[in-house]
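TICKET: design request
STATUS: open
ATTACHED STRUCTURE:
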């Protein structure tokens, strides 16, 4: 193609030169041919120099254009350049997508070179390890994450992973994974919550075992005594009564544990059923009187007509525990006041007593499972230490909050505060 074009051009010049040579003489003919050749040469040189200039500073999409044979040759170059550009764009896109995917990982990812210098890290890793994704690039990670366990692990990764404490009480699991040539991937995972749950589970199992073992030990002791000693019928009856007491205590603990686990497993209390509060509170007052056996003054402030939307059994067990605590922790002669009242953003059920009260340091822990201020007092009065844990749980399922105010020696007030969206019925003052 190119040869044909060139030959055609040369042929054209030769023809013109022949014609001019025939008319004006040979010298003119040769001169004409020379001039044509020089013009052709210059034309090629001009295109060549444009191409050379572009190759020295190749601006994408700006391949020079040309005429004749150059047009085709440069168009080919242009097509090639476009294909390359498109491939590059696709590659860049893929890279961006990969980075986005790594950014979206819940785990931290740091890419390290053979000498443990940071090549790249995602945002999660920046947060976990307190790195600066730009300023710290190229730095040795051991200079930035200086926890000795980690530095040791980095030098000789014998275990699968290490745990380090970093930042405010945060626990991280770090794992090195070799890849490519001498490169490493450092993964970081926040295991603070998982660790907390695991500790809670361990403590809970230990607590349950301990709580059940105490009555069981007493029970076994009595059993041995009754079996081995010849006791008179009255003594024997006494022992059996004490054994029954221990068995009943174990039963109460197990009942409460089952209640807790049922609350854990159940779906949130549906807001479709209306729990008649007036009747419930009156029933609670009668229970309180029965429990007190006339040793306390029981008062009732029935000030709201609102009803709670939820599960009656759960509310009754939460309120019932608040009431029984007030009676059990108030010495004879004291007063216990039950109240159902409206408040700024809803309504509250409260139980106020003039009992022994609670030191401030214990208040935040009262709803923990098995937490008791005075173990023996709780036990003597038939407590399991699970009542307030159940109450808090049951109330939370009704979007209600348990509030505790208390003054040692003066008395306490436990309130369950329900938001307006959990109430039904006539509660005009709400939202006013
Ligand atoms: N009204 C109250 N007055 C004083 N202390 C209370 C009162 N209610 C609860 N407490 C304290 O909170 C602890 C936890 O209560 P709870 O979970 O119901 O367990 P318990 O089975 O002991 O009643 C009790 O052991 C007691 O120390
Ligand atoms: Mg209780």
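STATUS: resolved
RESOLUTION: sequence designed for all positions
ATTACHED SEQUENCE:
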């Amino acid at each position: 193609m190119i040869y044909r074009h060139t030959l055609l051009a040369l042929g054209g010049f030769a023809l013109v030169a022949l014609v001019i040579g025939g008319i004006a003489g040979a010298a003119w003919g040769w001169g004409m041919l020379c001039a044509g050749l020089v013009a052709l040469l210059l034309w090629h040189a001009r295109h060549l120099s444009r191409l050379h200039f572009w190759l020295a500073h190749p601006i994408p999409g700006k391949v020079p254009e040309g005429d004749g044979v150059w047009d085709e040759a440069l168009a080919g170059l242009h097509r090639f350049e476009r294909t390359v550009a498109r491939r590059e764009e696709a590659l860049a896109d893929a890279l961006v997508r990969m980075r986005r995917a790594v950014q979206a990982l819940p785990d931290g990812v740091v890419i390290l070179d053979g000498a443990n210098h940071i090549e790249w890290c995602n945002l999660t890793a920046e947060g976990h390890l307190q790195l600066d994704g730009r300023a710290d690039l190229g730095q040795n990670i051991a200079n930035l994450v200086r926890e000795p366990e980690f530095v040791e692990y980095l030098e000789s990764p014998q275990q699968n992973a290490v745990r380090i404490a970093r930042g405010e009480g945060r626990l991280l699991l770090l794992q090195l994974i070799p890849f490519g040539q001498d490169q490493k991937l450092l993964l970081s995972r926040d295991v603070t919550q998982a660790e907390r749950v695991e500790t809670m589970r361990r403590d809970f199992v230990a607590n349950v075992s301990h709580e059940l073992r105490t009555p069981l030990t007493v029970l076994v002791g009595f059993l041995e005594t009754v079996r081995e000693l010849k006791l008179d019928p009255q003594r024997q009856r006494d022992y059996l009564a004490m054994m029954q007491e221990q068995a009943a205590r174990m039963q109460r603990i197990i009942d409460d544990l089952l209640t807790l686990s049922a609350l854990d497993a159940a779906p949130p209390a549906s807001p479709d059923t209306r729990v008649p509060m007036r009747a419930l509170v009156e029933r609670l007052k009668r229970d309180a009187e029965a429990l007190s056996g006339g040793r306390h003054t029981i008062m009732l402030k029935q000030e709201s007509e609102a009803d709670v939307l939820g599960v009656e059994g759960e509310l009754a067990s939460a309120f019932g525990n608040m009431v029984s605590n007030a009676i059990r922790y108030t010495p004879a002669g004291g007063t216990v006041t039950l109240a159902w009242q409206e408040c700024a953003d809803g309504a509250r059920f409260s139980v106020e007593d003039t009992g022994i009260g609670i030191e401030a340091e214990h208040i935040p822990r009262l709803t923990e499972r098995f937490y008791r201020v005075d173990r023996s007092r709780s036990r003597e009065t038939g407590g399991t230490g699970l009542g307030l844990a159940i109450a808090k749980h049951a109330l939370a399922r009704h979007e209600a909050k348990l509030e505790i105010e208390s003054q040692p020696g003066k008395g306490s007030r436990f309130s369950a505060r329900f938001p307006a969206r959990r109430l039904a019925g006539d509660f005009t003052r709400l939202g006013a």
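CLOSING REMARK: The radius of gyration is 44 Å. Residues 35 and 131 are 72 Å apart (CA to CA).
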